[in-house]
Amino acid sequence: MTDPTWLFGYGSLMWRQDFPYIDARRAYIPGWTRRFWQGSHDHRGVQTDPGRVVTLIEAPGERCYGRAFLIEPDIFEHLDHREKNGYERNTVATFFDDASAPGIVYVAATSNFAFLGDAPLNEIAAHIKRCAGPSGTNIDYLLELARTLRQLDISDPHVFELETLVLATQNI
Ligand code: SIN
Q1: How do beta strands 87-95 and 100-108 pair?
Q2: Active-site position among 62, 72, 77, 83
Q3: Cα(169)–Cα(101) distance, rounded to whole angstroms?
Q4: Ligand 1 atom at shortest distance from the alpha carbon of 13
Q5: Can 88 be counted among the known catalytic residues?
Q6: Positive or negative CA dihedral for 77, 79, 82, 84?
Q7: How many Cβ atoms from other residues are within 10 Å of residue 101's Cβ?
Q8: H helices within the chain, ranges in order?
Q9: Which domains are delineated in the chain?
Q10: pTM for this structure?
Q11: pLDDT tens digits, residue range 51-110?
């Protein structure tokens, strides 16, 4: 890769840009959905109590909306380190309002060592409330994600239901 490339972000990459970028646009990728099914030992949890963060799960017929960043190829070295806890680069067609372009997305596959998988939403919410790691609390990750999705006018029932559950029980 030598030319600037689109990076599709659907989790923390949407709101925490510790990398330079040339352009940023709301975008979507078809066939995927966002789920809090990935363990985080290095950002929102620790080795003995990994937090829960988002990954993408294949979902034919659905679209995952997020934010795409046009970046120089040498930035991927930094991103590979940031996303090292089970995420791998995947090539993906990235769609904008008026165009599409090839892009890269970090996906933590169901076979990766840190994958936690599905659980009842109230259990996922309790898990998120409990955990924290070097990048902050797991609750802040969820709330920042929900806030960023609203800012981009993106609806995601899985994320918004978890936000409601976490906020409803926060002071109990
Ligand atoms: C992403 O944001 O695109 C990957 C998942 C994450 O870092 O939260």
Answers
A1: antiparallel
A2: 83
A3: 42
A4: 2
A5: no
A6: negative
A7: 14
A8: 76-82, 121-130, 138-151, 157-168
A9: 5-168 (3.10.490.10)
A10: 0.95
A11: 999 999 999 999 999 999 999 999 999 999 999 999 999 999 999 988 999 999 999 999
